[in-house]
Design a protein that fits this description.
The complex is a heterodimer of chains A (139) and B (389). By secondary structure, chain A is an alpha+beta fold. Chain A contains 4 helices and 3 strands, in the order ααβββαα. Chain A has helices spanning 2-11, 17-21, 85-104, 124-131, and strands at residues 36-40, 61-67, 74-80. Chain B has helices at residues 39-45, 94-97, 111-118, 148-151, 161-164, 170-180, 196-207, 220-230, 242-249, 271-281, 290-298, 320-325, 337-350, 368-377, and strands at residues 2-8, 11-16, 28-36, 56-57, 61-69, 81-84, 87-88, 124-125, 142-145, 152-154, 188-192, 212-217, 233-236, 257-260, 304-307, 329-332, 359-363, 384-387. Classes of the chains: A alpha+beta (139), B alpha/beta (389). The complex binds nicotinamide-adenine-dinucleotide and zinc ion (2 copies). The site of one zinc ion has 6 residues of chain B, from loops.
Chain lengths: 139, 389
């Protein structure tokens, strides 16, 4: 069902951006204590116990670092240890993406600025989606 | 600076926008000398990829001169003449290390949108909507190029701007279709679409040793180019029976490799077209896959189909039965430009790969709207309208 909604959303235009960006949850409530992970192209030893920016989330997280199978790099998994709601999940997802980028690239890729776009009513949902472009999705 | 921007569905125009700035240490700023329209842009203009905002700068295939470098850039200096891969890729992640640059983990600042749509996010692309990172495009006087050591390539002296421009995207896209489609010496290869991408795929197949290469389209002026400039055979699907022709040319087997270079706005003669148009307009199907269906149908048993045309969402009447029962391999990708560009520039300098005929129209940015119109409507013998900002 969510898959179909996704399909309709893609087609429905810019207003769909937010819905599309939102994590699919197959109808069940999102579990706030779920592990979120990224795989990083590095050896486990290259990561400290709490790779930045996971160390500056402002709330505690549990972290597991382990080699990915078959030479696929290193898995970095994290989850909240106290309830922080959706905002916590969003912050965690963004921090994981940035942790990977900091290890692999050394800095966070910035969007173009100043932007060339104009604020419009129809563009507002998409602007919202890009403001939260690293917080939703499927990590 | 001046830039050609998306203002709304089927509405482009020149606007004054802020100059780009260095934002990361690996960035360079390029003064654009040439920037070409691409079939991919048509999908954006038509509103089929609904992630554009008013004022987004279009264009992703370009060449220019480096005018500013970030302090982490090693391979480029001010004054370098560079051609830039249309995909923004970090060069460090697992995908980049595997040479699958368009799958980069670190090239898109908004990965959530495409993760939601497709299950995982590809890398970023210039001028290709906020789903692909929201990077400003190249139909402008200047453009910011992130990860310049990975994505910008110095053009050898003997290669003209006109030729090297197409190393940005059309040529590597075509090459990838033939390469990852598995073209080998002795193969018969069929290519759907005689645009720049289809022509480059056909040329790649020839250079990879294919025995025969046949390109299918309905525009005679493009098919004539296929014969005279690319050295491949041409078939017009509106005036001949493609299936019968392909069987005749392959001893009844069918082509070994079928490359689709048409994309989501495919045209078909007959009732299938009306079906797809209506479903697409009602948004019951986001993409029209006529050429993909054809490629799968005509491919030989055990053969390979490579989808180069851009698709954004969902298609109808996908011939899964043929895929399964004929044991086909179906594959697709956005182009891994960085993997092929140095080799392509070398071939360009040796004269093996000629591209300048693709730029049928060269115009200023101010003529951008007109350029897109003739390109979209395939008027006046247009293959690609190229802008010189
Ligand atoms: N995979 C990638 O990285 C990548 C890169 C660049 C372009 N593309 C895609 O490649 C496709 C072609 O790009 P282009 O710039 O050559 O576009 P184009 O519009 O110039 O060419 C498309 C051609 O396909 C022909 N065509 C339409 N329906 C057909 C059918 N049923 N059978 C055979 N031919 C048919 C058209 O007549 C036209 O000549 C587009 O979808 C574009 O988005 C993909
Ligand atoms: Zn392109
Ligand atoms: Zn990468």
């Amino acid at each position: 069902m969510r898959g179909l909604l996704g399909a309709a959303a893609v087609a429905a235009g810019a207003g769909a951006a937010v819905a599309v960006a939102r994590r699919r949850t197959t109808g069940r409530a999102e579990r706030m204590d779920r592990w979120h992970s990224v795989t990083i192209a590095c050896e486990p030893e290259e990561l400290g116990p709490l790779p930045p920016p996971l160390d500056s989330l402002g709330f505690p997280v549990e972290v597991v670092i382990r080699p990915a199978p078959g030479g696929r790099g290193t898995e970095l998994a994290a989850r909240m240890t106290e309830p922080r709601g959706r905002d916590g999940v969003r912050a965690l997802r963004k921090a994981l993406r940035e942790a990977r980028q900091l290890v692999e690239v050394g800095e966070i890729l910035q969007p173009d600025s100043p932007p060339t776009t104009e604020r419009t009513l129809t563009g507002a949902p998409l602007a919202y989606a890009t403001r939260h472009g690293k917080e939703e999705g499927r990590l | 600076m001046k830039a050609l921007c998306w203002n709304g569905v089927n509405d482009v125009g020149v606007r004054e926008v802020p100059d780009p700035r260095i934002r990361n240490s690996g960035d360079v700023i390029v003064k654009v000398r040439r920037s070409t329209t691409c079939g991919s842009d048509l999908h954006l203009l038509g509103g089929y990829i609904p992630f554009m905002r008013k004022g987004d700068v279009l264009g992703h295939e370009f060449l220019g001169e480096v005018v500013e470098v970030g302090d982490g850039v090693r391979n480029h200096a001010v004054g370098d003449r560079v051609v830039v891969s249309s995909f923004v890729s970090c060069g460090r992640c697992r995908y980049c290390r595997n040479q699958e640059f368009s799958l980069c983990d670190n090239g898109n600042t908004n990965p959530a949108i495409t993760e939601g749509m497709w299950g995982a996010a590809p890398g970023g692309c210039y001028g290709y909507s906020h789903a692909m990172g929201g990077f400003a495009g190249s139909h402008a006087e200047y453009i910011r190029v992130p990860f310049a050591d990975v994505g910008a390539f110095t053009v050898p002296e003997g290669v003209s701007d006109e030729r090297a421009l197409f190393a940005s995207d059309a040529a590597p896209t075509g090459w990838m279709g033939a390469d990852l489609g598995g073209v080998r010496p002795g193969d018969v290869v069929a290519v759907w679409g005689a645009g720049a991408v289809g022509q480059m795929a056909a040329r790649a197949a020839i250079l990879l040793g294919a025995e025969r290469v046949v390109v299918i389209d309905r525009f005679e002026y493009r098919l004539a180019m296929v014969e005279s400039r690319i050295g491949a055979e041409a078939l017009n699907y509106t005036s001949t029976d493609i299936g019968a022709e392909l069987l005749e040319r392959t001893g009844g087997r069918g082509p070994d490799v079928c490359i689709e270079a048409v994309g989501m706005e495919a045209h078909t003669p007959g009732p299938q077209h009306a079906y797809d148009m209506v479903k697409q307009q009602l948004r019951l199907e986001t993409d029209r896959p006529a050429a993909v269906r054809e490629a799968i149908y005509h491919c030989r048993k055990g053969g390979s189909v490579f989808v180069l045309g851009v698709f954004a969402g969902f298609v109808d009447k996908f011939p899964l039965g043929a895929v399964l029962n004929k044991g086909l391999t179906v594959r697709g990708a956005q182009m891994h430009g960085q993997r092929y560009i140095p080799m392509l520039l070398e071939r360009m300098s040796r004269g093996e790969l000629v591209t300048e005929h693709l730029a049928t129209h060269t115009m200023s940015l101010d003529e951008g709207a007109a350029g897109y119109r003739i390109f979209k409507e395939k008027k006046d013998g247009c293959v690609r309208a190229v802008f010189t900002p």
